Amino acid sequence: MTSEDFIIREITSDDNSQIAIVIRDVIVEMGAPKVGTAYADAATDKMFETYQKEKAIYYVVEHNNKIVGGAGIAKLDNYEGNTCELQKMYFLPTIRGLGLGTKLITQCLEKAKDFGYDNCYIETLPYMEAAVKLYKRNGFVNLDKPMGNTSHFNCDVWMLKEIN
């Protein structure tokens, strides 16, 4: 399998149940808490509807008509600056290491630039080491404290990238 075997496309309402399963399965796989993470977000069950707002988009990764990952961007909650957040980026184990993470981050950042955002924020967990490395490779730098208020109080790795 290569990254060419996958389709990255905008989410549709038909994708809601599949992407919710992907998100929750990865959170459980990583041993992350269910509270204070995307696991408990109401948005996780209605991802299509959640991203039907201005300057927001969510992409799914499809393989053989099955959703195997996704990521999106939207304005950072409870923050006054012109900053978006890279949100709900999760991949099933079978598709990791194929370059799809960088491909999806690049697509999200290009869209964030089109939307006119100045910066992109992300928060994650320290033991999601591969994800943290991926974000650093793609130009995100660590912050000392969170920005905005995403209600993900268990996520204590905060990163930012300037969009240029």
What can you tell me about this protein's structure?
The chain is built from 4 helices and 7 strands. It has helices spanning about 15-30, 45-50, 100-115, 130-135; strands spanning about 5-10, 55-65, 65-75, 85-90, 120-125, 140, 155-160. The longest helix has 16 residues, at about 100-115. The chain starts with 6 loop residues before the first strand and ends with a strand. The chain is α+β, with helices and mostly antiparallel strands and about 160 residues long. The mean pLDDT is about 95.
Low-confidence stretches: none
Secondary structure category:
alpha+beta
What topology, given as strand order, has the largest sheet?
A: 1-2-3-4-5-7-6
- Total strands: the figure is 7
How much helical structure, as a percent, in the residues? 25-40%
Q: What fraction strand? A: 25-35%
Alpha carbon gap, first and last residue: 32 Å
Kindly report the average pLDDT value: 93
Radius of gyration: 14 Å
| Major sheet summary line | 7 strands, mixed
Shape: globular
What is the subunit organization of this protein?
single chain
Count of alpha and pi helical runs: 4
How would you describe this structure in keywords?
27% strand; 164 residues; 7 strands; single chain
Q: Gist?
A:
This protein has 164 residues and is of the alpha+beta class. The protein has helices at 16-29, 47-50, 100-115, 129-137, and strands at 7-10, 57-63, 66-75, 83-91, 119-124, 141-142, 157-162.
